Amino acid sequence: MRAAVLHETGQEKLEVLDDVETTGFGPGKVRVRVRATGLCHSDLSAMSGVLPQPAPFVPGHEGAGEIVEVGEGVSALKPGDRVVVCWLPACGACPSCKRGQTELCLTGFMNAGTPNFRRPTGDVFGFAGTGTFAEEVVVDAGCAVPVPDDVPYDIAALIGCGVTTGLGAALNTADLAAGSSVAVIGCGGVGISVVQGARLKGAAEIVAVDPVASRREAALRFGATRAVSPDELPDAKQRVTAGEGFDYVFEVVGRSATARTAYENTRRGGTLVVVGAGAMDDFLQLNMFELFFDEKRILPSLYGGGDVLRSYERTIALWRAGRIDLAGLITHRVPLADINEALDQMRTGTALRTSIEI
């Protein structure tokens, strides 16, 4: 079986190998033939070591495919079912799940420490317990979520992470008010999904902030009312809010420097939503007086901040109704053999989302 493997954390390129085998199939598991997978910035973060992940590993967590085999005790899925891979499944029994905060369930994170693959040289892990840069994956049945047959594999893959994360940040976490002013810092696939969510909620002004001109142009097509470079943000703040600051600012980069910029551009009493996944040793500095005096809400948003299965269903309904554009997020397509080309597209910002056809 072919899969793209990172041998050591810190390497910039993946090696596509044909001697990889899936492991762990058995009761409660399913085998998925991956048909399409998106490249998310979190994959790059795991490769560089920003996000913790044992190596060697197969990156990829934003995938879709079809069930080829089900293990004993799996009754809700059958061979041939079209599914999206959910890297953060809900167990339904832990305190977080019982409170209705299924996005905080730790079951999925526990899977990240168990090898998903094997090579003649030893075990290979799958990123976030999945590893969709491979022809097949074996995952818990709860990680394979059925989707209707009219949802193309490449669209379903996007729903598996980036779109759910971005839309959910606006719809669930912020639950932003109609007529509000919004700034989105970082306009890749997730940031553009935030823009679409803000548009759905009726934001009056949506300012997209990104250093890459092509991403700024894309943000305007997806619903942003203005698109500026980081250096132009102060002027946009003045023009849109008379210098007061935005009602909502979304940080979609995952760095303390941009989070600090987001905080400073949020109005007093406004809301900062932290969407980007950052490093454990990157600290955001705030002083106690400004926290007290400005009364700004700081809301982290993990995987869209809501029930994942309901978010999938909502996204599909909005897509079918033409209320959101998912196909337009896919700006590049490459076969698995050219995975390193996709990595370069992500690093340079030339792609919103690259669909990797497997």
Structure in words:
The protein has 358 residues and is α/β, with parallel strands linked by helices. Helix content is 30%, strand content 26%. The protein has helices at residues 41-48, 95-98, 107-111, 153-159, 162-174, 189-200, 213-221, 233-241, 256-264, 288-294, 308-320, 339-348, and strands at residues 3-5, 15-17, 21-22, 29-38, 57-58, 62-70, 82-85, 117-119, 122-126, 136-140, 144-146, 181-185, 205-209, 226-228, 246-251, 266-274, 297-300, 330-335, 353-357. The strands form four sheets. Strands 4, 6, 7, 10, 11, 18 and 19 form a seven-stranded mixed sheet that branches. Helix 5 (162-174) packs parallel to helix 6 and helix 5 crosses helix 11 (308-320). The model has no long low-confidence stretch (mean pLDDT 95).
Low-confidence stretches: none
What's the count of strands?
Answer: 19
What is the overall pLDDT average? 95
Instruction: Count every helix, treating DSSP H or I runs of 4 or more residues as helices.
Output: 12
What fraction, in percent, of the residue positions are helical?
25-40%
Distance between the amino and carboxyl termini: 11 Å
Overall shape: it is globular
Radius of gyration (CA) equals: 20 Å
Percent range for β-strand residues: 25-35%
The profile of the biggest β sheet is: 7 strands, mixed
Helix/sheet category: alpha/beta
Q: How do the strands and helices of this protein lay out in sequence?
A:
Layout: E1 3-5, E2 15-17, E3 21-22, E4 29-38, H1 41-48, E5 57-58, E6 62-70, E7 82-85, H2 95-98, H3 107-111, E8 117-119, E9 122-126, E10 136-140, E11 144-146, H4 153-159, H5 162-174, E12 181-185, H6 189-200, E13 205-209, H7 213-221, E14 226-228, H8 233-241, E15 246-251, H9 256-264, E16 266-274, H10 288-294, E17 297-300, H11 308-320, E18 330-335, H12 339-348, E19 353-357
Helix pairs in contact: 5-6, 5-11
